[in-house]
């Protein structure tokens, strides 16, 4: 396995403030490759006790020093806007009850858990059976 020279770059060689460098070293982050394995700023913050802003700063400085590319630190993250678009694009199962479907944004979202609750006799089982028929 080939390890790039930037991945072998040691944390002590990065232009970091002393308190950040010491925290990284104390939590076992000795090289840029270790930083890459942290899983982005949130993972680094969780593992080191740094704030997310400090973790972001560390990863940006590592990228500027030839470490992980500045776009790589966002790998595996999803923005709220992307989640909203995905939720809107989720297929819906209609219940055949127009008002209920309108309340649910066009029906019950497929591939997700939706819980219906109420007093006995209001039609929860009937609704579940209707949804099963409509799938």
Describe the protein's architecture and organization.
The chain has 135 residues and is mostly helical. The protein is built from eight helices and two strands. The mean pLDDT is 83.
Write the layout of secondary structure elements.
Blueprint: H1 5-8, H2 18-26, H3 32-36, H4 40-48, H5 52-64, H6 80-89, E1 92-93, H7 98-103, E2 108-109, H8 124-134
Antiparallel strand pairs: 1-2
Helix pairs in contact: 4-5
Summed up, what is this model?
This protein is mainly α and 135 residues long. It is built from eight helices and two strands. The chain is rod-shaped and about 65 Å long.
List the quaternary state of the chains: single chain
C-alpha Rg, in Å?
Answer: 24 Å
- DSSP strand content: under 5%
H-E order: HHHHHHEHEH
What tags apply to this protein structure?
50% helix; two-stranded antiparallel ribbon; mainly alpha; 2 strands; 3% strand; 135 residues; rod-shaped
């Amino acid at each position: 396995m080939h390890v790039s020279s930037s991945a072998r770059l040691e944390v002590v060689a990065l232009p970091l403030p002393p308190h950040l460098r010491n925290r990284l070293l104390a939590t076992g982050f000795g090289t840029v490759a270790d930083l890459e394995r942290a899983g982005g700023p949130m993972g680094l913050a969780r593992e080191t006790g740094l704030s997310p802003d400090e973790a972001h700063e560390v990863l940006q400085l590592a990228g500027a020093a030839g470490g992980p590319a500045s776009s790589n630190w966002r790998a595996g993250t999803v923005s709220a806007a992307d989640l909203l678009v995905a939720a809107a694009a989720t297929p819906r199962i209609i219940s055949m009850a127009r008002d209920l479907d309108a309340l649910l944004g066009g029906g019950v979202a497929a591939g997700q858990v939706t819980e219906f609750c109420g007093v006995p006799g209001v039609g929860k089982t009937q609704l579940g059976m209707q949804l099963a028929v409509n799938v």
